[in-house]
Amino acid sequence: MRSSSAFFVLVAMLGHPHSFTTNAFLAKPRQRPSGSTSLFYESQGYNNGGDSFDDVERARKQLEGIFSESDSANKSGTDNNNDNNNDKAIPVKKLIALLTNPANNDKLESMLPPPPPLTSAERDRRMMELKLLEQLASCDDATRELLDLWAAEKGLEALERLEQAEEFLTAGQVIASEQMLLRLIDEFGVYHWVEPLNRLASVYFTQGRFQESYQLCLAVLKFKPWHVGTLEIIVEVAMRLGDRDKAREWATRGLPKLISSTSFPPFAETGPANPQRAVWVHEAIQKAQEALSHLEYQTKRDFFGNPEARYDGEAYGGSRMKQEKTKKNAAEQSNNNKEETESDIIATKTSLMKSFNAAEDDEESEDFGDAWQ
């Protein structure tokens, strides 16, 4: 009932040409995020000019570059398509073409290169995201905090460029906005920062490129299924495409109201908690935890699973340790064999002595019998 009513509300809203806004896509982060994320931003240098936050991002880029170079060196001589181990290996225009092609919806993961390594800074952001998702069960403020977090994931410099793209779009400079977002996607990829992709979907919507906008929404939700902003907008994009079934389906996946009330305005601000909200939050947290665990596994497997050849030589003790371990195992096996051989010899001697003693007893018995006769 909730989803059906919500659908008709959306239909009514779309009847007004100015009812659609891109706020869910282009929500501008506050200068000082409130609540729990304030601590996160302050710990990253958000309020002192962002120097330390940008330092972290520069270090992250260097680290990912080192890993990518190492991975390329280790895989030289193999398939040239696997030389770079991140999504930036694909030219940005080709990447967008892949993402906006409906034929690739079910095979997107196999077409993209593996993700870059999960850094400690990225993991911290994921943990903060989990905390904010948990807060959604009891308050709506966490929605704003999540949008702020996602916009600023790559530091203040990247955030300013993202906001500049928004300003271009607001001023009607759509091409300039699109080009700036494409540069951000080309620089940062899509695995650990989906917000430029999210904003590009808004640009395409503004241009009337609804199918491409819809496909980019799908891509964002592929990487971040709990993105509350995209879950709202994709409903309206589907409506503009004339696909009411899809619009109704996506409406059921959106974030439910916090308070149980009717699905028609005006909505109640007080009342009993909506049980569907708790279910949605639980599923979102589970998906986010699974995504984080998968990234941790991929990082360990692809970047830390096997020792690199240049660190496995005798100069670093690698081969020497293996040789010593092999010698130790061989010595232990030799000692075990020696002990088994000595035990066999003792057992054989004991058996022979018993046989010899038994033979002597038989001879003495025969001699005694002859003498008796």
Automatic annotation (TrEMBL):
Membrane-spanning parts: none
What keywords are annotated for this sequence in UniProt?
A: Signal
Q: Where is this region: Disordered?
A: 66-88, 314-373
Report biased composition (Acidic residues) as residue ranges. 359-373
In its UniProt entry, the species of origin is given as Seminavis robusta
Locations of Basic and acidic residues compositional bias? 321-330
Q: Which InterPro entries match?
A: TPR-like_helical_dom_sf
List compositional bias (Polar residues) regions by residue number.
69-78
Signal peptide feature range: 1-19
Q: SUPFAM superfamilies in the record, alphabetically?
A: TPR-like (SSF48452)
Indicate what this protein is called per its UniProt record: Repeat-containing protein
